[in-house]
């Protein structure tokens, strides 16, 4: 498989991952029995450096940070897919760094979340490691 295709597949998977994350991270299922906790997170407000915030504000803010970085990773993957092997070989900190970052995301997804983020992050990680390895080999 070509390096460019692996990066483009990773990019599409990252966009889907980001979209699913954005649509799902603020949802709760009544079967979880978390309604009172979520209500408390939304309604308990406190002063933080001159701003009135709640834990729900922090939760949503950090969730949207994750979305922003997933979209950035998708854009970066797409751009990497358009570069020549020689250019990619000159950027090992970027190619391997992105792959290692998604490996950490996969571990964190496995440790703290559930099947969908584990599957998406694992597939992206496989694509990125394969692409980094292929791009680092001599032509």
Give a brief rundown of this model.
By secondary structure, the chain is mainly alpha-helical. The protein has six helices and two strands.
What does this structure look like?
The chain is mostly helical. The protein has one domain (3-29, 65-136). It is 76% helix and 6% strand. It has helices at residues 3-24, 35-43, 55-81, 85-89, 92-112, 115-136; strands at 45-48, 51-54. It has a two-stranded antiparallel sheet. The chain is elongated, with a radius of gyration of 18 Å.
Q: Count up the helices.
A: 6
String of helices and strands: HHEEHHHH
The figure for the number of domains is: 1
Q: End-to-end distance, in Å?
A: 15 Å
Structure class? mainly alpha
List the helices and strands and how they pair.
Blueprint: H1 3-24, H2 35-43, E1 45-48, E2 51-54, H3 55-81, H4 85-89, H5 92-112, H6 115-136
Antiparallel strand pairs: 1-2
Helix pairs in contact: 1-3, 1-6, 5-6
Structural descriptors:
6 helices, 2 strands, mainly alpha, 139 residues, elongated
